[in-house]
Amino acid sequence: MKPLGIAVIGCGAISGVHLKSVAGLESAKLLAVVDTNEALARTTAEQYSCDYYTDYREMLKRADIDVVHVCTAHYLHAPMTVDALAAGKHVLTEKPMAETKAAAQTMLDAAAKHTDVQLGVIFQNRYNPASVIMKRYVDSGELGKLQGMKGIVTWHRDAKYYATEWKGNWATEGGGVLINQSIHTLDLLQWLGGELASIKGTMSTDALEGVIEVEDTVHAHLVFRSGVTAIFYATNAYAINSPVEVELLFENGKLSMQGDTLYLTQNGEQTLLSEPVVNELGEKSYWGVSHGVQIRDFYEHVATGRKFWIDGAEGYKAFRSVMDIYESSRSGKRIQYSENTVTTS
What is the pTM of this model? Predict the structure, then answer.
């Protein structure tokens, strides 16, 4: 089978994970990179032996490009995705989908219109060995009914991190620690817990007050239709990037994840179920190892014509939760969900 032709838009930090993943696959060939910074685009293209562009619209004219990765600032995800889908390209976009619900809706509308191509959203942590094991226990019921969950993210971001023009602003980033760093953990909670019944949250800017207009700390309480409840806490005000913590409490046991290490506690005994997989990301090691796994999975679905499971609608779930936590914090009210409507109380 002919390798898929790949283009990556955005040559910033996260693009490196995508580029290395594509380079290691026989099923795909990196043909182009795009960045408005021509020097960065040229250097990246030289490193990966491909073409470069400073205007993504020019790249979209190429018939040999099958899949486009969107690795740009949040506020650019929606327009670039819409244009790429309209050009007949499959799209795999980094989280979050967009910076507002309205922008994300344009992506969903475009995907619904252009059914010959697929939209995928990066939530690579669902592919982590520990995540897969937790999902298996939830679905199997072998530990009894899931009763409660918690997710904790204590990371560090300083003023230097927010020196990038688009970060730290509501209009361009769409939020702070919640939409950027901890959306992955929130996604795991909603993936494991199922459909939400309600959500309530509070946000604040504790360590970076005066530096950013968005939040650096947030906590939330989630209630699922199944009756399961979850607590969630995230901050960029800690001294280091600590391993993410997720805990699942069942009737007959408890799963505890710290980083990629997963333990089962049952009848007073603790069993190691999963250990970390070493990656080569250095100081960015907390990003995990599963970008490549998700990218390969997306390509396999595209190549075989099967519907990708983390599509626009699935990726929108965690994004909606993020937006509703912000709304709940502003209004002081709990967001209630029913089959077709969202209300506050």
Answer: 0.94
